[in-house]
Protein: EGF-like domain-containing protein
Organism: Adineta steineri
Amino acid sequence: MDVLELPRPVINFLRTMAKESCRYVLSWDIFGGTDTVTLTLTWKLIDNDEYHPSILKSSQQHTRSGKYKIGTNFENLFAKILKIFKSQISCTPNCMNNGTCLFSNVCLCTSEWNGTYCEIPICSPPCENFGNCTSPGVCTCYYGWTGSYCQIVQTILWTFDNTLNDLSGQFIGVGYNSPTYTAGINGYGSALALNGIHNQCVIVYPYLNMSYMSFTWEFWIYPTIALPNDTTFISQCFNVSKDQCLLFMIRYDKILFSFWYDDVSGLTVIPVNKWSHMTLIYDLITNKKFIYLNGILEHAQHSNGSLSADFVNLTIGCRKMGKGATYDKFFTGYIDQMLYNSRVKNASEILNDATLVTYHRFLSNASLMDSGPNYINGSWGGGAVSIPSGIVNQAIDFPTNGSYFQLSELVLLGTSNWPLSLSLWFKINSLTETSSIAYLSDAIQCMKMITLLYNGTIQIQIFNGNKNNIIFGPVIHIGTWNHIIYTFSTVNGMRLYVNGSLYRSVITTYSTNDSPVTLTFGNSLFNTTCGYLNQQFYGSIDEVRLYSRELNATDIIQLYTNP
């Protein structure tokens, strides 16, 4: 009995069918004369081209008589061997994605697929950060991550709603000297409260890689004391060397954005005991830094280089100047809604993030949801419903006495002399008496912001500390959609815009109790504190936007022509 190994061309052919390091070897025994032989086939699966009998996966023997001329007819012999073997194997279900059935219910997959039947795609390198490999080489990333294998963090949001962790739970905040919480900018949840005298701050794990890339940081601050120089909001310092230390801090009462001896400064003094929205951007493509305050560009300047702060933790409310250094330059006040993006946001996005308080579209599948950046969801009652015939998609309708829509705990709207704009579309279904479209209230104060008089005349008003200043607008007819915008600023006073045009204005101030307020649409809800009756509006409202800034003429035309 002789044992003959297949010639090299045949072995190479088998190897193309093999998976990674696994190899297959066929051997046979030949009996008989020179013209007729009896063939016994053995198929072995071998690792790394080494002959190890202990790893024999399958052994099936077939005997067949035929005339083969040894040494000159191997290719013909091999084809017959393969035909015999394949006729006796099957995979159920069939191998997928071009996989080959090697023997019973064992599939040989291509380099892009894995699994019993080659049903699982392969991504190399593997998807990171909870990403899913959805097709060969394609990762579908979890919220907040991007990149070819989900290796780049895209969005991180720290809401500080009684937690120091980010919203996804992947970036863990560890309190240093027990920071606490207080009421936040959104009127719900909370904000981070830090006391610099007690050396309080937050250290974030794991390392957030911002080196050699663009980024945008946005957050709200509320200093409760006059801040000393170099008071720090955010830092990431690998070393006290140029471009190896990221610092967002206060210097000479203004914001400073530094890569260490590579700085850009803001122009406006940051107020105490008042909320301010900060945006700091580094653009790798243009190599520029940008500072925005309350949505408005303060300063843009070329950077000497990109950040290179490798493998050092982010700190919030203090700084640590390199490994082994102590924490210092502690912030005293509140920080809220801290948002990181691994891209450059544009000016329009930043302005909206800073000043679009809430935006309600009243879609049927999300009637109460806020489509703005702050997630200030509303509530309704008394029979208020979503209807299909809004100015854009659906709207909210007030068909019965007592129906209303309400937004609560609005912080900036309850702040004296803070600029504001309220934009909405409305349609009157019926009108028999004075009715309330938008009504402002807190525990002791209330104001009829937008009212329809019994004859359809629009009326808006504002309280200046002594009296309500009033503007009377045009008469609005039943059954048609109309656009109204109410604005206030200390420069221009109160203004009324109707269907894209300025109707009238009055110079005035705006006085409140400087506490969060409630804004109610459709009804004044029997507010006996101010002596108002239940002034029901029978009609529909759509596309409600509340801003913490005075809209300009361009904004107003845009909202009217493209609701």
Notes: The radius of gyration is 36 Å.
